[in-house]
Design goal:
458 residues, alpha+beta, five-stranded antiparallel beta sheet, 23 strands
Amino acid sequence: MGESRVFVLSKEGQPLMPCHPARARELLGKGRAVVARQVPFTIRLKDRTLADSEVDGVQLRIDPGSKGTGLALTDEKKETSGQGTTVSIRRGLVSVELQHRGDQIHKCMQQRAGYRHRRRSANCRYRARRSNNRTHPERWLPPSQRHRVDTTFSMASRLCRYAPVTEIHVEFVAFDTHSMSAGRPLNGVEYGQGPLAGTNTRAYLQAQWNNACAYCDATGVPLNIEHLTPRSRGGSNRISNLVLACVPCNRAKGSQPIEVFLAHRPDRLTKILQQVKAPLHDAAAMNATRWQLIEALGTLGRPVHTWTGEGTKENRNAMGLTKTHTLDALCVGPLDHESGDAIVRFPEQVLVAKATGRGSYTRTTPDRYGFPRLRRARTKQHFGYVTGDLVRAVMPIGKWAGTWTGRISVRASGQHSLTTPMGRFNVSHWNLRLLQRGDGYGYSTRSESPQSTSRKTR
């Protein structure tokens, strides 16, 4: 492990090779550099241009994911081993874990659709449904999936502005969702036959549950098709999420999770959960966004190389690293282990960038039924500050007396709310100083503690 490097910009703002934090402190102490950005921490030199500097270049390695994406800046050097052969040595300089909010966006879209459905049915009960012949533009993605592409591209673009990135390496994988659903490899004609081949949903469930209620074994009564994970809680119409239930059991369960409804009957719960398979939402999202992510990264003006997930796993196991997004990003790309190529360094601190958005576009706050409850302020900036800004507060007196750094939530009264690691309190705008404008991300750090067998610790 080693210290995470600090980004360095030239006098005209061009990226130079990242430096050690001790070197950055020395440059700032001597007045040769100024702070250009707080997070990620970046300095700008006052006495050196790009033409006066030696820049070898770094590589940006990306491990895309559905809920999180790992990004790592690395450099590779050629060294001579003890046997006289030339080996490639890869060092990790900066690691960033990007946390997406696609699930939150999907939930908000479902909530909005529920509000609209309820208002339409309440105000005009017999109004015909809107036709389903609407089309989308070519290469359209749902908002939750478009968010994954845009945020990954945005973070990669920022790293290219702060570091001299010469090439981009991306893990490019495709998930066989049909094989994953079956739980085994499929061949030939099996890909055209799912669990409902030659039957329908109700007949399949009747045969599987012996035409009885899955919760109470009732027979000879009307049976409904029941969702184990309710649609309101993200459940799907996948056949493994469906059972048969009698009307009383269906009403009693309602929108409860199956674990809560059958908490007092663990044997029955175990029997039902044996048919539930892992959801394929994440795999489907990766399949839908992988090509558009590669195309977006190609617009950055750097060559983009794609590599398989199997190669990343092989590199990670050979280096004795645990599985995290950032360490997987560090292992993306070829390494010849037989000739001695190795990863000799990884940052001990990971910058975690959580996508928080830039506020709500809605003009009103709805009640539980989707009707307007109160109006929201149309002005987002108050006394020069916007929610999400990174500020430094100097509190002269009171319980929170001292100097604090954190992000604020603004109010029209000027008494803004400041969130710090020690808690949250109100502070007047007169006691604040802006450090960095909010950019739609919340930043934090975490330690990288893999089981490493690397032969160097620098």
